[in-house]
Amino acid sequence: MKISVIGLRGFPGVQGGVEVHCERLYQHFSHNSQITVYRRKPYLSSHSNKNYENIDFIDLPSTRVKGFEAVLHTFLSVCDILSKRPDVVHVHNIGPGMFIPMLKLFGRRVGITYHSPNYEHKKWGWIARNILKFSEWLSLNFADEVIFVNKFQMEKVGQNYQKKSHYIPNGINNVERSKDADFLMKHGITPGKYVLAVGRITPEKGFDVLVEAVNKSPEVEQLVIAGASDHSTEYYERLKALDINGKVIFTGFTTGEDLRQLYSHARMFVLSSYNEGFPLVLLEAMGYGLPLVVSDIPATHLLTFPDEDYVPVGDAEAMSKAIVDKWNKVDGSSVKYDLTEFNWSNIAAQTEAILMGK
Question: 0.85 cut: is pTM over it?
Fold first, then answer.
């Protein structure tokens, strides 16, 4: 089966939950599938030069202008796909889904993975939000199959689409803690003495609330935020201004062994987001056995945590109290989570079967 993949920036070495999802997912597809991933040139680097057994890449121009990069690149990708004969096109997220009717018009089978309702993100204005809502309608109505990583979002879209809707969560690879700490030493991070947060530096991640919470928590020595800003540095500068006690360390986009070291030596992990699809970083933190504090949003209820781990979204005072309580309780030992449901091999097999129409 020939599968064309659009709607992501690319992988490897590209920041983003969708990008990590795709890299891990397609590596677990069977050898009966040949996958072609369309990547956006501006986001590729020397870290993107890696070969995969059943994955090819087509790199096309794009732009880093917010609101235009996905549209331009997806349009160019679709034009190239129409000159070929893939068995199915796999679209990621609802923005690129606006081009599904065009693919269907030319007789292509299309599956879409709905990662999150992007129109809920604070970075989008009124016009962009409504375009995304219209793209969601096009995606749901014209795609042959719709895969949701969030079962609450699947229930939310209504009964009209249930026959072609499927819930398949994100997955987690088996991980082992790193004994090395050279990346931490490079950034002046003290093992076992920091709170860790991972993600793009964008307003919907709620890092401003987390910075305020940590600065209200005398017990916490350091907050490490591993992530980079995609477009504007305004929010990043705001975070630095909020760090009145100098506790926050920004490591930028961090991946591979460096990220492994951050997870391995953190005292706890905090997810402060206002909204998420299915947060891969939370699964990764669980894989490393880290104690957690998470925003009380639908996505974090896809997993089961004690009530004490949840805090009202956007509430810095409540988050500070939860962090301090957790900080004082944990002694460096890992927490055991049941992650059997989130096996990439099973997830890939389910996704592949759905794309094939089985």
Answer: yes
